[in-house]
Amino acid sequence: MSKEPRDRADVELDPRETEILKSVIQAHIVSGEPIGSRTLSRSRGLDLSPATIRNIMSDLEEKGLLAQPHTSAGRIPTDIAYRVYVDRLMGPPRMAASQAQAIDEALLRSRSEIPELLGEASRQLSRFSKHVGVVLAPELRRIVVEHVEFVRLEAKRVVAILVDRAGMVHNRILEIDDPLDQDDLDRMGRQVSEQFGGFTLPRMREALLTRMSEETAQCDRLVAASLELGRLAIEPGLGGDVFVEGASNLLGAPEFASVRRMRALFRTLEEKSRLVELLSRVLDGEGVQVVIGSENPVSDLADCSVVASTYGSGDRIMGTVGIVGPTRMEYARAIALVDHLAKVLTRLLSATGPRG
Predict the structure, then answer these.
(1) Which of 15, 181, 215, 265 is the right S-S partner for 219, CB 3.0 to 4.6 Å?
(2) Which DSSP letter does residue 140 get?
(3) Looking at residue 218, what is its pLDDT?
(4) Are residues 270 and 255 in the same domain?
(5) Whole-prediction pTM value?
(6) Residue 3 confidence (pLDDT) above 70
(7) Cα separation, 269 vs 256, whole angstroms
(8) Cα–chain-centroid distance for residue 310?
């Protein structure tokens, strides 16, 4: 991840530069167009002449906070400017009580099934941000396995069904060497559940491998097969699914008027593995994280910002919720929205989720 914008965001500003920078950013967020000195003088209520504003904007450009896309045009904020704005200039994050209530009610209606709940969360993020809502489902390595079942499909094909303590169901099709009937599979599922229920997948894998190495050649055929099926069911067990909603919201944004940029953005949103990579980075942070423009590790999202936070069950982090939008998004509103939704998800999952 590029660190330059963050490293340069401690640039010193005097009061007039602070006022002009904040005004340019706020005007650009609304219009999406380059902002000129006369526009600021007329519309922002500044007690400064256009010539003075123009000189201050030139100074801000020299400091890397404003850019001039065309010779005759006004100026637009840089990624560094937005970092300064988020870290130092914007007001406290707030959202309307009516929006919070609408989100709460929508999630409550969907809480019976975890995938539906996470899908609804992405829709609510998109609905109220007017950008793209994304939700990273729990990574398998973070889940606690409650129950395991094996269901016969064909003679040598079995579906492994893992149910975690949050109530989420994970399916995997396995190819096996020797045919097994459903009665044997039922007994094997009960055996694996009794011995390894309550384990995380990494701990379950370790325990299975230890048991397999300790069993002798004379051990019960069903025990050996159970251990092998359990091992197959959880390897590899790392990735989480991603729920994405509202990509069409970005179609009208001037930042994506270029067909090339729009294609790159949609390609990234479709290749969910890249979103998983991006959102997984948030799992190591605390609170709402804001990734702006060129700070983004995914090059096709260099014109976008990501506002994201983790959600969990009890004290266990399970996944990430976030908003993807242009760098000129309303950050205070986006931060408040993501923070509220993450807390609601955590509250709902904790009510029915892991018990330790």
Answers:
(1) 215
(2) G
(3) 47
(4) yes
(5) 0.74
(6) no
(7) 14
(8) 8
Question: How high is the pLDDT of residue 83?
Answer: 96
Peptide bond into 236 cis (omega under 30): yes
Kindly state whether residues 283 and 166 are assigned to the same domain: no
Whether residue 18 is predicted with pLDDT greater than 90 in this model: the reply is yes
Is the separation of the CB atoms in 344 and 311 below 8 Å? no
Closest Cα to residue 325, out of 254, 235, 271, 239?
254
Name which of 160, 145, 118, 82 is nearest 354 in CA terms.
145
Residue ending a domain, among 203, 234, 265, is 234
Pairing of strands 66-67, 76-77: antiparallel
C-alpha of 319 from chain center: 8
Q: Are residues 51 and 121 in the same domain?
A: no
| Residue 282, amino acid | V
Distance CA 229, CA 205 (A): 11
Provide the CATH number for the domain around residue 341: 3.30.450.40
What is the rounded distance in angstroms from the CA atom of residue 161 to the CA atom of residue 298?
A: 33
Neighbours of 111 (CB within 10 A): 17
Looking at the structure of the chain, the number of domains it has is 3
Dig out the tokens for 25 from the structure.
């950013």
81-135 per-position pLDDT tens digit:
999 999 999 988 889 999 999 999 999 998 777 778 899 999 999 999 999 999 9
* Spatial distance between the Cα atoms of 233 and 245, rounded to a whole number of angstroms: 30
Q: Are residues 85 and 132 in the same domain?
A: no
Amino acid at 315: D
> How many residues in the chain?
356
Are both 69 and 207 inside the same structural domain? no
For residues 257 and 339, state if they share a domain. yes
Which pair of tokens denotes residue 197? Answer: 């229920």
Q: Is the pLDDT of residue 272 over 80?
A: no
> Encoding tokens for residue 147?
């129950």
Beta bridge partners of 161: 149, 171
Is 103 in contact with 321 (CB distance < 8 Å)?
no
Question: Do 180 and 225 touch, CB atoms closer than 8 A?
Answer: yes
Same domain for 145 and 132, yes or no, is: no
